[in-house]
Amino acid sequence: MAKVHWRLLTEKEKLWAHAFWAKFKIDGPKSNINKASPVLRNVAKGKHIPEKGIQWVLEQVQISPFGKTDGLSWLKAHCTHKAASYTNGWSTMFSFTIWAIWYFRNQLVHNKHHSSVFEVKDFVYKKVGEFIQALNVPSTRNSLITIHVGWTTPSSGFIKLNTDGLALGNPGLVGAGGVFKDELGRWIPGFSHHVGHTTSLATEIWVIWDGLSIALSKGFNKLVLETDSKTAMALIDKCNCDHHSLGTLVTDCRLLLGHIPDLRIKHIYREANAVADQLAKKGAKSTTHFVMYNSCPTDLGHILYSDTVGNLFPRIVIPV
């Protein structure tokens, strides 16, 4: 009924609206409204409501009449109103109610789930409660500190392998890249890998597998492996992956790790992984499956130089 009211208000010049009012006379001796169905009778008799506009009054302050303003202005007025008529504030309650209506409408359309008014009400109060509780969690902003990070050279006699994966969507088109450098920061080999379509975590595991395979083929027996993916590092290090979707790949990585006599695995921040990051981007955009770079690509020269001279970059972190 509300939809018909709204259409009568916004489409009053259209033929169907004229026909409606011509058919159903509300007042006077020739009124025939009582012959209409209950729904149409209520629509006709409620004509004055949309014409006047439904006035929302909170704490004696009238705001945004429904039907007399555009939708965005109406939403903004309610979402920013400061009335405390409700325990958690009208603007909060209104915002979550609108969201709940949209959410349960999707549940009905896509999942054929019919919801009662009470279910919607309980959902709104639950979400508002969670929102208020989240607002009351003490902020860690004041405890944040700035540190300076950058690529560091490995110990004497070691080769350092930096790896990174890049996903253009998750899942999506992904690329992987890695670079080996010696104790002076000199480029040994580097590589980029166009993995295809998969998840970002799968890419991080793939690039570690790539790097370890190359390290073994070149006889690198003293290796430092650095990745900016804590999840990938945890999976390879100690996670039980028997039933994990990447379990086979993780197991292969562990087998490769076991063939390197002196191996150290470290987590680093992305600011210290810039060369590998750029190689991963090359892999994502490449039309070639795998590319080995025996020397540094020209467009990465300035990043390699920045690593070699020990440039540092600021990063905001929570102190441990």
From TrEMBL:
Highest taxon, organism lineage: Eukaryota
Domain RNase H type-1: 155-285
Classification via PROSITE patterns: RNASE_H_1
SUPFAM superfamilies (alphabetical): Ribonuclease H-like
Gene3D superfamilies, per database record: Ribonuclease H-like superfamily/Ribonuclease H
InterPro entries for the chain: RNase_H-like (IPR053151), RNase_H-like_dom_plant (IPR044730), RNaseH-like_sf (IPR012337), RNaseH_domain (IPR002156), RNaseH_sf (IPR036397)
GO molecular function: nucleic acid binding; RNA-DNA hybrid ribonuclease activity
Pfam families in the cross-refs: RVT_3
Protein name: RNase H type-1 domain-containing protein
